[in-house]
Prior knowledge:
Layout: H1 4-14, H2 22-29, H3 33-45, E1 49-53, E2 57-62, H4 69-73, E3 85-91, H5 94-103, E4 111-117, E5 135-142, H6 152-170, E6 174-177, E7 181-184, E8 187-199, E9 202-213, H7 232-236, H8 242-263, H9 266-275, E10 282-286, E11 291-295, E12 298-299, E13 305-308, E14 314-317, E15 321-322
Helix pairs in contact: 6-8, 6-9
Amino acid sequence: MQSTRNKLIDILSNNSDTYISGQAISEQLQISRSAIWKHMKELEKDGYVIEGKSKRGYRILEYPNKLSGNTIKWGLETEWLGKEIIYKDTLKSTQILAHELAQGHAQHGTVVVAGEQTQGRGRMDHTWESSKEKGIWMSFILRPEIAPNQAPQLTLLAATVLAEVLRRDVGVVPMIKWPNDLLINRKKCAGILTEMQAEQDQIWYVVLGMGINVNHTLDDFPKDLHSRATSLKLETDKTWEIRDLIQKILVTFERTYNTYLDNGFSVIKERWEKDGFRIGEQIKIKTLRDKWEAPFLGIAEDGALQTKTPNGEETKLYSAEIDWFS
Ligand code: BT5
């Protein structure tokens, strides 16, 4: 249940250009005018700047700089993604909380964001470094009506979304390394982790996590990542507003996801392959059992890596590392 305070912020946010009268707020929230006034004073203590004019009403002039569910929602132009945003200063992992919420019936499009993660995770129990307020650490809860074997397509879809935002809004040249890395100048600046709960032919839910290094300097990374990780700040010499980037990602993700549901994976595949790292080249491949070199032929309709076995036969791989850093 949304608190009265959050509902009040929603009402004010939806009327950001105009004043909304105390009477209208009181009717919508079923609370007295003096209760509204008290809520406004509390919001001001939290850094909201609210203008109140007699006869006209209230409007928000400024949101607090600090990230919160409400500040991320302010001005967010999506229809379903991020209608519910849960923000925590510190979490073990946004994936863990998102799984808990999804099992408790959180709605499709719920977004979990953390200021820092103490146990951020990658694939196969890898660690994901998520230093405090330096990056975007967030997970989406999705309830897609697709078959479980199509879920890997969502990782590739998310990668094309990040590539689009990085190119269009940050002005860098991104490359997508199969299946889930975003590289700038051959260094990793973002990773995606898709996890799901499913039964034979039905997905219960997907938790899609994204970690993006935004305002890190080199010292914010552990030493072993210095030669292979990067951030938007390191690449552009600019400090980026995290809230603004989150909104751009949400809007672009929602649009791309809708396109995917309407038109299928082929549009995403085409976009992915345009930015795909080392497509057509000879790559190093590592699976649980084997290591070998083979050509990267492209990605299959189901998101798998198309390549050749050590014996030279064409094959599809669903889980592997390519061109890892040794
Ligand atoms: C990934 O795994 O790249 C997926 C990362 C997903 C992180 C998000 S953050 C929000 C959500 N909550 C979570 O707990 N996770 C998701 P993988 O391909 O396995 O890559 C992990 C490897 O990347 C590590 O083993 C390191 O070598 C490297 N690495 C770790 N932290 C990094 C960072 N901040 N930047 C670049 N590389 C990093």
